[in-house]
Each structure stands twice: as C-alpha cells, then as structure tokens.
Amino acid sequence: MSSSTPSNAREAALSQLKLGKETAADDTELDIVPRGFGRERFQGASLPFSGFDLWNGYEVSYLDLTGKPQVFHVQMVVDAASRGIVESKSLKLFFNSFNQQTFASRRTFADAVGGRLNEALGVTVELTFFAPQERPPTRRLEGKLLDPYPLTQRPTGYDASLIQATTGVGAFAFHSHLLRSNCPVTNQPDWGAVQITGGGTKHPEPASLLTYLVAMREHQDFHEACCETIFMDLYNTLSPDWLAVSCHYTRRGGWDINPARFTHRPNTVNRGLIWRQ
C-alpha cells in the first residue's frame, strides 16, 4: 500500500537541506538530492524511461551596466539523467544572489548561471529567458479529463494496485487537475495536474486511474520522484508499447516544476504553461 521505507542515506541527505530551515541570505550553495533516492522503490530495475524536468522561474533579476534591474521569466530544462535534482529553496536563494550583481547582457548572465548549474548537476542545463512581453503561452493538457469520473473506492493511501487495466486498441490520453502530493521534508502539500498518454493492448480504466491519482494525496516525495512513480506503476500494470507522463505543479517560492518521463523522447519540449501557472 505505502511506498518503501526511505533509506538511512536518504534521510541523512534530506536532513542537510536548506528546506524548512532558516538560512542566511548569502547562502548560495545549490542543494542536490541524488536521483537514486527517489528510485529506490524500483529495486534496481533497469529504468524504461528517459525525461526531463522543466522549471519555470518567475523572480529572476540582475542589474545592467547602468544599475537598472532587468527581470525575466526563466525556463530551465534538466535532463532526468543528471546526478540529482535541485532542491527548490536552494535554487531560489541561488538566483536571488544575482539580484544586485551587474551583467553586460542577458547572455553573460545566462553563462554565469548556467556554468554553476552545469557543474552542480553534471549535465548541460538548458536555460531560456523571457522578458515580460515574451512570456510563454498557456496550453491545454491532452486527452480526456478524468476528474468527472467517480472514484472506485475511498482511497486510504498510495496504492499502485488501484490501477485497473482494460483491453484497448491504439493510443490513450488522459489528464487530471486533482494531483496532490507532499514535500518529504516539510510535509507541505504540492498541488498539480498530470497528463498521461500511451499506447498498447492494455489501457487504464479511467475511474481506477483517477482513484489511483487521488490516492497519492498523502504521498510524500519530491515532484520528480512522484512523476516517476506514476510512470512506473502504469508501465508495470499496462506493459505499454509507449508511455508518457508529465506532472505540472503549481508555483512555490517563485518556481514551478514540471517533470516529464517517457519511453520515447519527443523532438521538442512543450513549454506552455497550464491554467494554474
């Protein structure tokens, strides 16, 4: 029913994070949580997915050569193969540390930020900066809305067995705005939406899929790990020909996180914002 007990190494690492603690304003060290901690429940299985984490930052600023503030919406794409995930409070403090620094151009600012992020994560982080008039467009999630379906039972906790498979042909696509999980450090709720698309001879029965998603309401893990859990539970239940899961969480501390996992990597990243972002 519930997820496996976190390892001692994971607990020790989480206890060192800035999250949930008072921190000095000049503490700009990025906290990186190893991705392996969130994948312990998969018991060493070869992971059938690749993916990325798309972050939207709404409070990014530096000073130009005259001292005038420049403000941006930044989108940051981190490959799921990176050595870890960035803890969001440390990322906020990191970007805030540039607020009173002077840069000659957007490019020099991006190079300074990107260099630090690349070093911390061990991958090349893609950064795109949008001026106020360049804000990314909104988007609608794909597929049938699950939210009107009745629950198959009253969920009592995370339970992968709630997903029921039905015989299907071709592709399926669903989305829900009822996703809620909880921070593993502070236990604060994280609100979001989820989009699920795939194909094969087994499809998820809609009401059971909604019940499963609602059952994550008390589940404790980071956004990225929750997305991977949903992906793996569907993958193990359906044995699909292809599968894609993306979670779109609402903003906290000036940032929202949108992890996406898939069996077949798309050619482009959909950068559109959903209605709560």
UniProtKB/TrEMBL annotation:
GO terms for molecular function: preQ1 synthase activity. Coiled coil: none annotated. This is NADPH-dependent 7-cyano-7-deazaguanine reductase N-terminal domain-containing protein. It comes from Acanthopleuribacter pedis. It comes from the Bacteria. Signal peptide: none annotated. One of its GO terms (biological process) is tRNA queuosine(34) biosynthetic process. InterPro entries: GTP-CH-I_C/QueF, NADPH_dep_7-cyano-7-deazaG_red, QueF, QueF_N. Pfam families: QueF (PF14489), QueF_N (PF14819). PANTHER family: NADPH-DEPENDENT 7-CYANO-7-DEAZAGUANINE REDUCTASE (PTHR34354:SF1). Residues 27-127 form the NADPH-dependent 7-cyano-7-deazaguanine reductase N-terminal domain. SUPFAM superfamilies: Tetrahydrobiopterin biosynthesis enzymes-like.
